[in-house]
Amino acid sequence: MELIKVSEVSYIYNDGHQALKNINMSIRKGERIAILGPNGAGKSTLFQLFNGLLKATSGKVSIKDLPVQKENLPEIRRSIGMVFQDPDDQLFNSSVRQEIAYGLMNMRISGQALEDAIAWALKVVGMQGFEAKSPHNLSGGEKKRIALASVLAMKPEVLVLDEPTAALDPRGVSKLVRLLNSINRDLGITLIFATHDVDIVPLLADRVYLLSKGEIVLDGTTAEVFRHKETIRQIDLRLPRVAHLAELLARDGNLNMTNLPLTIGQAKHLLEDNTSF
User: Fold this and answer.
1) With bands split at pLDDT 50, 70 and 90, how would you rate the model's confidence at 258?
2) CA–CA separation, 81 vs 189, rounded Å?
3) The predicted structure's pLDDT at residue 274
4) Distance CA 148, CA 174 (A)
5) CA-based Rg of the chain, rounded to a whole angstrom?
6) In the β-sheet with 190-195, what is the strand arrangement from edge to edge?
């Protein structure tokens, strides 16, 4: 099922800056999609078109066959859950419980159903027992989990995350990647995330749209996109570190391979197959 359709979409800001140009995109239910690109590529602008925070200058954006326009926004925003890059932009209540309850109460959920939804969302993100704490006193990783819980509580079909690993330490990144994959796998929620962190893309995406200066320059499976090494480097990105190491070993004649490994697991299998290494 096609959940999101973007057709020939461009967006020009009031100052004349063209943030997006002729974007075409199709996202199906259950997919894990990375919008990969350097800073200023247009990733955040694209996301704001999904739920009507911005309106396309030209072209059409549809969510579940509904055009993103004023009369459809309530239904669209129930389907699309947005998690901002900086959780401080999303968290504004005095307690974790109030934070998660806010969106639910706007959906007229109350009583035991409200309490059950709050408890469920906190359990999903591993933050049980934090109900009375102030979100503003939590660590960066904890804030991201609470922001995620506040969106998950409303049971969206699509989870859209802008730079989900920004400002997280390596352990926090690893935890978040596992959590997001479990949300996709166990809850069937479609994941779309924008990032310039190439190392998380093979761990968290089935397909990639590579964005540069407002245009899609590549799209395909994760493996297909990362085969275009020169294109990636030309737009000021790089290969995942595991792939770059394998590339150097192959260049020096120490490794035989047809496809670059993108994860540690893939590299392990490759090295096991290269018995002479």
Assistant:
1) confident
2) 10
3) 78
4) 16
5) 20
6) 80-83, 158-162, 190-195, 32-36, 207-212, 215-221
In whole angstroms, give the CA distance from residue 63 to residue 77. 10
170 CB neighbour count, 10 Å cutoff? 9
What separation in angstroms does the CA of 119 have from each of 96, 113, 123, 126?
11, 10, 6, 10
Quick one: what percent of the chain has pLDDT higher than 70? Answer: 99
CA gap 227, 213 in Å, rounded:
21
Tokens 């409303």: give the residue: 154
In the chain, which ranges are continuous DSSP H helix? 43-50, 73-79, 96-106, 111-124, 140-152, 170-187, 201-204, 222-226, 229-234, 241-251, 264-273
What is residue 25's three-state secondary structure?
strand
* Nearest residue to 68 via CA among 46, 45, 51, 43: 51
Q: For position 267, what pLDDT does the model report?
A: 86
For 124-179, the pLDDT digits (tens) are 999 999 999 999 999 988 999 999 999 999 999 999 999 999 888 898 899 999 99
pLDDT at 275: 60
